[in-house]
Design goal:
By secondary structure, the chain is mainly α. The protein has four domains: 93 residues, MazG-like (Helix Hairpins, Orthogonal Bundle), CATH 1.10.287; 26 residues, no CATH class; 76 residues, MazG-like (Helix Hairpins, Orthogonal Bundle), CATH 1.10.287.1080; 48 residues. Helices cover 71% and strands 0% of the residues. It is built from twelve helices and no strands. Helix 3 packs antiparallel against helix 4.
């Protein structure tokens, strides 16, 4: 089957599912109801990438593609656009934003490409130079990722730390202020200072080209793996978590760490 045929088949499946004799659940869905499922599918793709499973990645990409067709089908029913319009828009956008490939513009480094990309994006959206450079960073991004993207965007116009040592000083300053807020017991200030500290740490990630959201996600995965190892070891010893001492749990935790591969450190995830 040709590629166009496969995409057409998926469009026909969605049309049937939403049709008169289609699926009651699918027919009930709206843009709003699909938002949560869409986010879940993206994170399942990330998990498949982490697992290094081509088959798993293929399946999860298919699930995401299905949701894109789903949303386009709802739009078609409302008389707005269909999946062909979506594809056409994507082709036009990618060609227009790559004049160094499809046109006469020159860009020899990834940095130059990013500068051109941002400017072309602003023009496409009809934004004047008076509009904030930060406006098109999505509000619904995970907070650490949004902090990363905001500081990344600001750095492109020179608003940045000169060196990482200066940023470490800022972190020490924020940590000191956070500790002071804790001593004072002012919950509102504690929350604000904690946020400032996290924002500064996210900025470190951007400075060293490590996505903080990805780094924390992998740290969470490590925590789960180690904790579950501890649960298994204690179960073999006929003990529950409540029955084990903190010292025993710490010892098992260190065993779990020792079993991890040496190359399990977080890697940078480029963001455009």
């Amino acid at each position: 089957m040709k590629r166009d045929g496969e995409f057409q088949a998926l469009a026909q499946v969605m049309d049937r599912l939403r049709g008169k004799d289609g699926c009651p659940w699918d027919k009930k869905q709206t843009f709003e109801s699909l938002k949560t499922f869409l986010i879940e599918e993206v994170y399942e793709i990330l998990e498949a990438i982490d697992e290094g499973s081509p088959e798993g990645l293929k399946e999860e990409l298919g699930d995401l593609l299905m949701h894109i067709f789903f949303l386009a089908q709802i739009s078609k029913e409302r008389g707005n656009f269909d999946i062909n319009d979506v594809a056409r828009s994507a082709v036009t956008k990618m060609v227009n934003r790559h004049p160094h490939v499809f046109g006469g513009t020159r860009a020899s480094t990834p940095e130059e490409v990013e500068v051109n990309w941002s400017e072309l994006k602003r023009r496409e959206k009809g934004k004047s130079k008076a509009i904030s450079l930060l406006n098109d960073i999505p509000l619904h991004l995970p907070a650490l990722l949004r902090a990363y993207r905001l500081t990344q965007r600001a750095s492109r116009v020179g608003f940045d730390w000169e060196c990482i040592a200066d940023l470490f000083e800022k972190i020490e300053e924020e940590l000191k202020e956070f500790k002071e807020a804790l001593r004072e017991g002012d919950k509102k200030r504690i929350g604000a200072e904690y946020g400032d500290l996290l924002f500064a740490l996210a900025n470190v990630g951007r400075f060293i080209k490590i996505n903080p959201e990805e780094a924390v996600r992998k740290a969470i995965s490590k925590f789960i793996t180690r904790f579950q190892y501890m649960e298994r070891v204690l179960a073999k010893r006929k003990k529950s978590l409540k029955e084990a001492s903190l010292r025993e749990m710490d010892q098992i935790w260190e065993e779990a760490k020792a079993l991890e591969p040496l190359n399990s450190h977080n890697k940078a995830t480029p963001q455009r």
